[in-house]
Amino acid sequence: MLNTIRYLNLSKINPLLLLVSRVLLVILFIVSGLPKMMNFESTVQYMTSLHTPLPWLAAAIAVFMEVIVSILIIVGFYTRPLALIFAAYTLGTALIGHAYWTMTGADMAGNMIHFYKNISIIGGFLLLAITGPGRISLDKN
């Protein structure tokens, strides 16, 4: 089995795998960003409930990152710098939106999972920044 894996040549499907990886990496953000965009006032209220400084600006940044930048990642436009920016954004959402260390009970458990999910996603964005988007992209690298 290990020999099979060792000699598996992914070079022919690598560009397609990188495209699929980019889509999978940001699909969560698109799914959560579109409702934020469609119900912007509710998003501002949510940011206010989190005691986010400048909740209107925070909501606008969330919509921009989760919808616009996600689409740019999918099409592979300025992928490496946007992946680094998205990693920082994801860290911010983890710290602001999933501060499980301030909670108890079920809230703590659920937010701890979401916090570490975000940390894992940061790893994906860092890998994307290193590898680049592949040939099936506007960046083509």
Describe, in plain words, how this protein is organized in 3D.
The chain has 6 helices and no strands. The chain is mainly alpha-helical. The chain has one domain (14-131). Helix 4 runs antiparallel to helix 5. 23% of the residues are buried.
For the structure shown, list the relevant keywords:
single chain; mainly alpha; 141 residues
Write the layout of secondary structure elements.
Layout: H1 2-6, H2 14-38, H3 40-49, H4 55-75, H5 79-97, H6 105-131
Query: In percent terms, what proportion of residues is strand?
Result: under 5%
What spatial form do the alpha-carbon principal axes imply? globular
Total domain modules: 1
Approximate helicity band = over 70%
Termini separation:
32 Å
Order of helices and strands: HHHHHH
Structural class designation: mainly alpha
Overall residue-averaged pLDDT value: 93
How many helix segments? Answer: 6
Low-confidence stretches: none
Tell me the Rg in angstroms. Answer: 17 Å
Strand segment tally: 0
The biggest beta sheet reads: none
Structure described in brief:
The chain has 141 residues and is an all-alpha fold. It is built from 6 helices and no strands.
